[in-house]
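Page 42, continued from yesterday. The earlier attempt failed because a stray header line got pasted into the input along with the sequence. Redoing it now with the clean sequence only.
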Amino acid sequence: VVTYQQVCLAPEIFQRVCKSKKTLLIFDELHHAGDGKNWGKALRSAFDPAVFRLILSGTPFRSDNNPIPFIRYEHDESRADFAYGYTEAIRDNVCRPIVFPSYEGELSWLSEGQEHHATFEDGLKFNRQRERLKTALLQDTWLGPVITDAHAQLTRLRKEEQPDAGGLIVCMDQDHARWVAELVARVTGTKAEVAVSDDPAASQTIEAFGMHKKQQWLVAVNMVSEGVDIPRLRVGVYGTNVITEMYFRQVVGRFVRMQEGLPKPQRAWLYLPKDPVLVHYAKQIKAERDHVLEEIMPAGQRDLFGRVTISTNEYVPLMAVARMDSLIGEDETRSEGDAAAVQEPAVSLYEQKQDLRDLHRLLVSAVSRTSGVDHRKLNAELIARTGSRVDQATVEQLKKRIQQLEKWKDRGYDGKR
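This time it went through. Structure tokens are written below.
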């Protein structure tokens, strides 16, 4: 057993072994080694001579869009020989169903000398979208009610189903995590444990939380993703500005492992802002997803803010009021034994169009930023090319508009300016 890092240090040694005898290689979580990374190059050099390869991955895609070594791609999409997804795992009682209470909000902030007001339903340019999300996550008037509702759900679970059920809040950074822990104490009266990546004792904190059944809440930053196993986690709050699909799915994965000896369906809950990207992931989470090399938006834009500090002269959150809006995945909560509980829900025509319009809006903003062409001119060009207006388009026409926008995003805008 070796790590990818060890292979990277001496790929020629492993290459000689593979050439000397027939070799079966088992790669665990291979998505960590994209071809654009040193690990990916070293793996190809070391293991190209191998006769057999078994590749395992729970999230077979990368947020930086680098191809994964030894993965077969067709038309920029990965092709698995065998896929075992979330739906199958629910059917086999391996995973819990998860639902996503999503929260709207009336949000206000100052940016570049101007005051802005918006809800998550409003279409905004990318910079304003990230400011809107950050405003929600930094205001106790928005995050406080969300945590209160999540705590009520956790209390119910501990009383009625699982006495040791635990909750997890994923935060933006260390300062945010400590502020959130104080907020948890204020609105719930309970002490939250804090685990941040820069704390040498963070791993011990997580391990202790997993074992100490009386502790209810864990607040974490970049610590609770792959490799962390706390089966008693049942309730979460997505309080981070990271919106890559891989990270979202890894967070979801912390809540869905089924436990023996508990009543089914053991559903889990992840509370989240009604940000259009997060809602898109939540609506798709039950379906197995292939690796599409090009994501909705460039990788650098999907980690909102990253580690870039926004000057208080440019951005100041003013006010945020949370409002419970919808329960994504509610159809999964039917009684155990109901075979339909693991079926994909029937999606209404309205919901299909709404999802496509959300994606369309994101792509228009992305193309506008890279091309310098305003939204009005982009939409006029789309009408000329597709013969449809976005508010009147059929599902197929919306898909056609999205296809054109994706081409512009990848290859550059070639229409009228």
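Notes: Residues 151 and 188 are 7 Å apart (CA to CA).
Reminder to self: strip header lines before submitting.
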